[in-house]
Design brief:
It comes from Labilibaculum euxinus. GO terms for molecular function: hydrolase activity, acting on ester bonds. The chain is α/β, with parallel strands linked by helices. The protein is built from nine helices and ten strands. The protein has helices at 2-21, 49-52, 73-78, 81-88, 114-130, 159-170, 177-188, 190-193, 220-236, and strands at 26-31, 46-47, 61-65, 94-98, 134-138, 146-147, 150-151, 174-175, 197-200, 212-219. Strand 6 (146-147) and strand 7 (150-151) form a beta hairpin. Helix 5 runs parallel beside helix 6 (159-170).
Length: 249
């Protein structure tokens, strides 16, 4: 009986150690716009960066992409899309919140003033925290606008700055995708950086049969580049439970 008890104790100890060492599965939700959204790969060459994000994590991280084209903080909240995310959040989930492109729009259903944009982001952050989830704010990706051989991105106005300031004041992680993507595009230059965005010839894309010269939306190389920036920042900031699951080639 004594030997049997010792054996059971040994087995229990081994099982406990194995379970304790087993990596925890983590979910990352994405709330954002068309630059992050997932697209049908059979219909278009357009890709969102969050669509490519799973390629930079191991099997213990699940990306739940809830980004939707044309949405701002205002319309994402008004349409109940944020509520859908909040209702799905569980303790220790991450949620990356990235808006700004459409908040800067003049369309009334999209436009959010600077104060409204700030209030909307605060609402999202606080509601995520109330579910014991872990919000991350991210600035919008740069809009590839060259003038006189220099990158000029004035269409996003003050929204990236507000995002940075808010992350600091709320003491939550910030991924400055605007700054990192801007640096990337500047280093690549005007012509080479076109391959990251939806600069395509006629006949390449069924959704845009006449081609396009789009400095906002991404093709696969651009989406992968932004996704790698996001993953690298997560690793650099050593974010709990996910930094050690980052895979950078």
């Amino acid at each position: 009986m004594k030997f049997k008890a010792i054996s059971l104790l040994a087995i229990s100890t081994v099982l406990f150690i194995c379970c304790a060492q087993q990596p925890k599965d983590v979910r990352i939700f994405i709330s954002g716009d068309s630059t992050a959204q997932s697209y049908d790969t059979t219909k278009t060459v357009m890709r969102g960066w969050a669509q490519m994000l799973p390629d930079f994590f191991d099997e213990h991280v699940t990306v739940v992409n809830k980004a939707k084209a044309g949405r701002s903080t205002k319309s994402y909240l008004a349409e109940g899309r944020w509520k859908e995310v909040v209702d799905s959040l569980q303790p220790n989930d991450y949620v990356i919140i990235q808006f700004g492109h459409n908040d800067a729009s003049s369309k009334p259903e999209r436009h959010a003033s600077y104060p409204d944009y700030k209030r909307n982001l605060i609402t999202m952050v606080k509601e995520a925290q109330a579910k014991k989830a872990r919000p991350i704010l991210a600035t919008s990706i740069v809009m590839r606008t060259f003038k006189d051989n220099g990158l000029l991105d004035d269409r996003l106005k003050g929204y990236p700055a507000i995002t940075r300031q808010l992350a600091d004041s709320l003491n939550i992680p910030l991924i400055d995708t605007w700054l990192k993507s801007r640096d990337l595009i500047i280093m690549m230059g005007d012509e080479p950086s076109k391959k990251l965005y939806m600069w395509i010839e006629a006949g390449v894309d069924s959704i845009r049969p006449d081609g396009s010269q789009d400095d906002t939306h991404l093709q696969a190389p651009g989406a992968a580049a932004i996704a790698e920036i996001v993953a690298a920042e997560i690793k650099k900031q050593n974010l709990k439970d996910i930094a050690n699951h980052v895979l950078i080639p």
